[in-house]
């Protein structure tokens, strides 16, 4: 075992755990409307927002009204981001005169950011103006994350309300998530990131005279053009809101997005910070903190072995390199391992930690190129997405996804022991089961059907860079990412074409909104029920037994669905290499 | 039900756009420009009063008298900082092995007496295509070539490399790396 890798991974996980309780408690107080600092100092802004927009914050909504409000709001988001991209050439803050984005790419990017996926078919510095990045993408980074958190808050209320048909007010949950949780954390993080060297400027790209002129097709190139922009403000929220869409093409591997070990540490902490703390928020709000810890335990039990194996396979390196006499052994002077597609300052440990965190959470930012990972090192991030983005998952969406698994788990447990399934005192009946099944199955269907169609269509097959088993992995990864709102990629696949922009755009759209609606339906249905008092016959859901049972349900569903596809992709490639 | 939501949806969207899309980035830009002026504008390095590069963005070096960095996969020239890109070559792709072989040939032919195993980061491409760093092993591997070409003692080269090396954060986080551009600017100042 490599001690440096082990230490770095341990520091990472422990740091996340340290923040779970304080941040989780703070968020619970925000959603419960109790005083918590920020909402006292900034309460006047919140009230002005409601007054200007004609919202009555006291008026709670039925689940249908809540869903309609969320859908309309997101619809305006998609339209606006699309319009800004198409019109960026006429808008200010475009110092490099970048032309309008093509319609299919603009559609893909708009859906990508509104759904909290942040899939990158666009190229950042080559495709988007500063105006588009700020008023299009940064805004969606905030509000798409806040939408997910709002839906989670509504679902939690479904568990705690007694015989009510209301689940809260979407506008209130949205504004509070943005103003009191996402914005303060983003301000803090972006200022620290700037101090490390992340750029934040409106200047045009800088031209510098290179130290050694280079040969460019026979002519000597003297100049290097350095892309700049207001990056830090966007990167902070991109990490905190499990968004992940890069300011620059190569995302967090770009030295201006992630220049130092400290910036990397803070950015990778930011990926899991809110999703992990929301487990505690859940525990606080349902007045039984053990329930929150149990869900966090489920996430960690799956996450830690995945992190370890990704690190292990990357550190072992590529057997083809050994044959060429390349030194891949870790030493005091080099990290060693499979360094293709990785940055020297991150080495193996920080690349593998990031890869596991960004795909366990539905963040999707990358600090190394997953396409160049070893077959089994790359299987880990792919499979973490395929589990349904419930191991941490997106802010809000991860936990409401896991709660759908909880509903399925208590139902199965109920069948096994012959008791009426219930969770937190609410009876789980056929309506909740049907909705939870939709939440589980829709992403699976999108991933497998999308992959199958894309490897059949000849024009879609041309997009593959690495042939053979790895080519299937590229396509499977793309749909696993879009179909679970992650956004990371095996970026060898050329997806900036009409087929992939539309196909992946639709996958992102359905996997977001077709899950939000059944989730809110569960919230509405649970809210109407009375709370059954705990009795001898109640299945406790905070015990190690239930934790292991829930882990098994998540793993079995994920493994059974995707094992055949994984066997043909990464597993086949691994066997060919060794 | 639909109509009642449209007005708040548009207005709240507009207000949040102003807060998160205008006020927030403007505020961060103000703080950045006021307190971290160099970092916020790309950590530029000046030589004779003119910008000659960024401390965070690598440049292509293939002259034997310079320290060489990672392979860059950007197009149409390596280290094109207006269009970052990785190679995205899969681990079993023959093109990856060919890239390695080509690089090994260049390294060996420019330094025929050096029979040390080549550190892996010197023959692989970085994720961004702009990696400003290499590992210390990759730096030390090149000492003899640079010393011979420049007619400088090996100790002096090693000293310059060490001077431009940053360690792990708190001795724990990240990796210890050599900044290639800074080493080369340093080397040129010893003419």
Structure description:
- The complex is a heterodimer of chains A (578) and B (191).
- Chain A has 578 residues and is mostly helical.
- Helices cover 63% and strands 4% of the residues of chain A.
- Chain A has helices spanning 3-32, 38-41, 43-53, 63-87, 103-114, 130-160, 170-196, 232-240, 261-285, 289-316, 319-323, 347-360, 375-386, 397-417, 430-456, 458-461, 469-482, 498-528, 544-577; strands at residues 206-216, 219-226, 326-327, 422-423, 426-427.
- In chain A, a hairpin with a 2-residue loop joins strand 1 and strand 2.
- Chain A starts with a helix and ends with a helix.
- The model of chain A has no long low-confidence stretch (mean pLDDT 95).
- Chain B has seven helices and six strands; from the N terminus they run H-H-E-E-H-E-E-H-H-H-E-E-H.
- In chain B, strand 1 (44-47) and strand 2 form a beta hairpin.
- By secondary structure, chain B is mainly α.
- Chain B has a three-stranded antiparallel beta sheet. A two-stranded antiparallel ribbon of chain B has the order 1-2.
- Chain B has helices spanning 2-35, 37-40, 94-110, 136-141, 143-150, 154-163, 180-188; strands spanning 44-47, 50-54, 118-119, 133-135, 165-166, 177-179.
- The chains are: A mainly alpha (578), B mainly alpha (191).
- Chains A and B meet through helix 1, helix 3, helix 4, helix 6 and helix 7 of A and helix 1, strand 2, helix 3, strand 3 and strand 4 of B.
Please tag this protein with its features:
heterodimer, A: 578 residues, mainly alpha, two-stranded antiparallel sheet, 5 strands, globular, B: 191 residues, 2 domains, three-stranded antiparallel sheet, two-stranded antiparallel ribbon, 7 helices, 10% strand
Tally of DSSP β-strands of chain B: 6
Q: Which structural category do the helix and sheet elements of chain A fall into?
A: mainly alpha
Q: What quaternary form is this?
A: heterodimer
Strand percent estimate of chain B? 5-15%
What is the ordering of alpha helices and beta strands of chain A? HHHHHHHEEHHHHEHHHEEHHHHH
> Between the first and last Cα atoms of chain B, what is the distance in angstroms?
77 Å
Main interface: chain pair and counts = A-B, 136 and 107 residues
Side by side, the strands of the main sheet of chain A go 1-2
What is the overall silhouette of chain A? globular
Q: What global shape of chain B is seen?
A: elongated
Tell me the helix content of chain A. Answer: 55-70%
């Amino acid at each position: 075992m490599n001690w440096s890798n082990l230490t770095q991974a341990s520091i990472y996980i422990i740091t996340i755990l340290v923040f779970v309780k304080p941040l989780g408690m703070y968020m619970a107080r925000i959603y419960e409307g109790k005083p918590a600092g920020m909402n006292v100092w900034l309460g006047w802004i919140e009230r002005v927002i409601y007054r200007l927009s004609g919202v009555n914050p006291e008026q709670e909504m039925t689940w249908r009204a809540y869903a309609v409000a969320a859908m309309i709001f997101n619809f305006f988001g998609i339209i606006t981001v699309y319009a800004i991209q198409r019109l960026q050439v006429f808008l200010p803050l475009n110092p490099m005169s970048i032309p309008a984005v093509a319609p299919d790419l603009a559609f893909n990017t708009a859906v990508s950011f509104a759904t909290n996926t942040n899939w990158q078919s666009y190229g950042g510095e080559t495709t988007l103006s500063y105006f588009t990045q700020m008023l299009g993408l940064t805004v969606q980074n905030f509000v798409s994350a806040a939408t997910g958190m709002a839906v989670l808050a509504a679902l939690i209320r479904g568990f705690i309300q007694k015989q009510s048909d209301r689940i809260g007010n979407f506008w209130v949950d949205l504004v509070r998530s943005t103003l009191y949780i996402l914005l303060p954390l983003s301000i803090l993080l972006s200022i620290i990131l700037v101090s490390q060297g992340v750029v934040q400027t409106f200047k045009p790209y800088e031209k510098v005279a290179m130290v050694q002129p280079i040969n460019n097709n026979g002519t000597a190139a003297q100049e290097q053009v350095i892309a700049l922009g207001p990056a830090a403000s966007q990167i902070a929220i991109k990490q905190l809101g499990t968004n992940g869409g890069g300011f620059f093409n190569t995302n967090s591997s770009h030295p201006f997005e992630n220049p130092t070990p400290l910036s990397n540490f803070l950015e990778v902490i930011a990926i899991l910070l809110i999703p992990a703390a929301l487990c505690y928020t859940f525990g606080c709000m349902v007045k039984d903190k053990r329930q929150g810890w149990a869900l966090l335990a489920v996430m960690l039990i799956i996450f830690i072995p995945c992190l370890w194996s990704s690190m292990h396979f990357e550190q072992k390196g590529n057997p083809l390199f050994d044959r060429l006499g390349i030194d891949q052994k870790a030493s005091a002077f080099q990290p060693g391992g499979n360094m293709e597609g990785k940055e020297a300052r991150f080495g193996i440990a920080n690349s593998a930690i990031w890869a596991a965190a960004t795909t366990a959470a539905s963040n999707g930012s990358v600090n190394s190129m997953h396409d160049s990972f070893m077959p089994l090192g790359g299987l880990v991030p792919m499979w973490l997405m395929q589990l349904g983005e419930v191991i941490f998952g997106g802010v809000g969406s991860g936990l409401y996804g896991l709660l759908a698994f909880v509903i399925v788990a208590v139902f199965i447990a109920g069948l096994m022991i012959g008791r009426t399934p219930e969770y937190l005192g609410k009876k789980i009946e056929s309506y909740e089961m049907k909705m939870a099944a939709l939440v589980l199955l829709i992403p699976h269907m999108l991933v497998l059907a999308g992959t199958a169609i894309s490897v059949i269509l000849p024009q879609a097959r041309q997009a593959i860079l690495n042939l053979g088993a790895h080519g299937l992995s590229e396509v499977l990864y793309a749909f696993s990412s879009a179909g679970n709102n992650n956004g990371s990629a095996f970026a060898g696949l050329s997806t900036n074409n009409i087929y992939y922009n539309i196909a992946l755009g639709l996958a992102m759209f359905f996997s977001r909104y077709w899950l939000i609606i059944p989730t809110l339906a569960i919230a509405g249905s649970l809210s109407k029920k009375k709370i059954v008092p705990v009795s001898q016959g109640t299945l406790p859901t905070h015990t190690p037994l239930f934790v292991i049972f829930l882990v098994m349900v998540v793993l079995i569903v994920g493994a059974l669905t995707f094992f055949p596809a994984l066997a043909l992709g990464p597993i086949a490639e691994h066997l060919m290499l060794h | 039900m639909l109509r009642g939501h449209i007005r708040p949806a548009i207005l709240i969207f507009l207000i949040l756009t102003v807060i998160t899309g205008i006020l927030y980035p403007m505020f961060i830009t103000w703080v950045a420009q006021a307190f971290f002026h160099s970092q916020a504008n790309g950590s530029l390095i000046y030589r004779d009063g003119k910008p000659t590069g960024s401390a965070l963005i690598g440049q292509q070096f293939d002259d034997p008298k310079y320290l060489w960095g990672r392979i860059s996969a950007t197009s149409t020239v390596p280290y094109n900082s207006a269009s970052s890109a990785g190679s995205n070559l899969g681990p079993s792709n023959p093109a990856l092995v060919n890239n390695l072989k080509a690089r090994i040939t260049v390294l060996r032919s420019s330094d025929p007496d050096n029979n040390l195993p080549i550190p892996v980061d010197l023959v692989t491409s970085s994720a961004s295509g702009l990696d400003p760093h290499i590992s210390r092993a990759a730096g030390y591997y090149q000492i003899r070539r640079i010393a011979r070409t420049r007619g400088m003692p090996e100790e002096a080269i090693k000293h310059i490399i060490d001077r431009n090396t940053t360690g792990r954060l708190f001795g724990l986080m990240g990796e210890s790396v050599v900044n290639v551009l800074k080493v080369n600017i340093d080397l040129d100042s010893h003419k």
